[in-house]
Write a structure and sequence with these properties.
By secondary structure, this protein is an alpha+beta fold. It has 11 helices and 16 strands. Strands 2, 4, 5, 10, 11, 14 and 15 form a 7-stranded antiparallel sheet that branches. The chain has a 7-stranded mixed sheet with strand order 6-7-8-9-12-13-16, with helices on both faces. Strands 1-3 form a two-stranded antiparallel ribbon.
Length: 341
């Protein structure tokens, strides 16, 4: 027996004491052959992936049928590159941006959640709104727009933010009538950064979602839904209106930030449907050393609804060609109007 599954370092939503999960599962040792690696991968996903029932309901995923579909494409005379292609094609059946196969020469991924949709974001327009005199506080870029609206651009939750950073930014916006938080193209990162930022906009302990954990190898083997709460920060908090800007490239921790913020009464989500990615990922390895990552713990919004395939905004707004030609970001301007009202 060989221990091959290790959970990726993830921190849970605030208020349940932050925990770094570490776990391993004994797996049957398989041979380092194309057939052995195929069997290892299929069984790892079969026993530990968390969205089988949901995706069967959404688009008819049948993992056993997937096994038979791809098994016939595997033989012991195929090249390593051919095997990698088959395994990536099989994993793509899950339609999950958190599912990846890594080798020394390639990174298998499913990115249709963002690549098949309009970007609804422009670097050129962002530069126009920020100008050259914007301020930088760790991972945040920010300025006061000419209508007294505060604007924060947070490109990735991999960029750390400290409590002092947030105190300084919110103090700078003290006289503003509202704040725009632009997380478009934010593909996620450290969930603690998302929680730290969201805690500045909650005034009391607030239910923001639920989580489950896998308890066995069966597709329905899960713990009960565990409520996840957001506690107000003990530092400077914002009481006025907020708009969060989203597009299809908002994923993973950024998707969870959107879900948390949508649970708050003074927040509106403006822009496009998010990309999703609500499963906390785990990692494992195949006999040949390739690494596979996959969703293992499902997370839900405050109404116990899945957010794996993204979150609908409160105001669905698309970046129009006409506005772009005029140097106007349709999504930012919609948020400004909402905050002005």
């Amino acid at each position: 027996m060989k221990k091959i599954i290790n959970i990726v370092t993830i921190v849970t939503i605030v208020l349940i004491v932050p925990v770094v999960f570490s776990s391993c599962v004994d797996e049957e040792q398989r041979t380092d052959t194309p057939a052995g690696n195929f069997e290892a991968l299929w069984h790892i996903i079969d026993e530990h992936y968390c969205f089988f029932d949901y995706k069967q309901h959404e688009y008819g995923l049948d993992w056993l049928e997937v096994y038979h579909k791809y098994k016939v494409r595997v033989n012991d005379h195929m090249t390593e590159t051919q095997l990698f292609e088959v395994l990536c094609d099989m994993l793509a059946e899950l339609r999950d941006g958190h599912v990846n196969l890594s080798s020394s020469y390639d990174y298998g991924r499913y990115w249709t959640w963002q690549e098949a949709y309009p970007k609804n974001y422009s670097d050129s327009l962002e530069r126009k709104y920020l100008g050259t005199d914007y301020k930088i506080s760790s991972g945040l870029q920010y300025k006061v727009l000419d209508d007294n609206i505060g604007y924060i651009r947070y490109e990735s939750f991999t960029n750390p933010i400290g409590e002092g950073n947030l105190d300084d930014v919110l103090a700078y916006f003290a006289l503003c009538q509202g704040i725009i938080i632009d997380i478009r193209n934010n593909g996620g990162g450290d969930l603690t950064n998302a929680e730290k930022l969201a805690a500045r906009f909650v005034q009391e302990k607030t239910l923001v979602g639920y989580m489950q954990h896998k308890t066995g190898k069966g597709h329905q083997d899960f713990s009960g839904m565990e409520p996840q709460y957001l506690e107000p920060s003990s530092n400077i908090r914002w009481h006025k209106p907020v708009c969060v800007l989203t597009n299809r490239s908002v994923f993973s921790a950024a998707n969870e930030f959107t879900s948390m913020m949508q649970a708050l009464p003074n927040v509106k989500i403006v822009g496009d449907h998010t990309g999703g990615g609500s499963g906390m990922p785990m990692s494992s390895s195949l006999p040949n050393g390739w690494s596979v990552r996959f969703s293992a713990c499902p997370m839900y919004d405050k109404d116990k609804q899945q957010t794996e395939f993204g979150i609908d905004p409160d105001y669905n707004v698309q970046l129009t060609d006409e506005d772009t030609m005029k140097g106007i970001d349709t999504i930012i301007e919609t948020a400004r109007k909402l905050l002005a009202e």
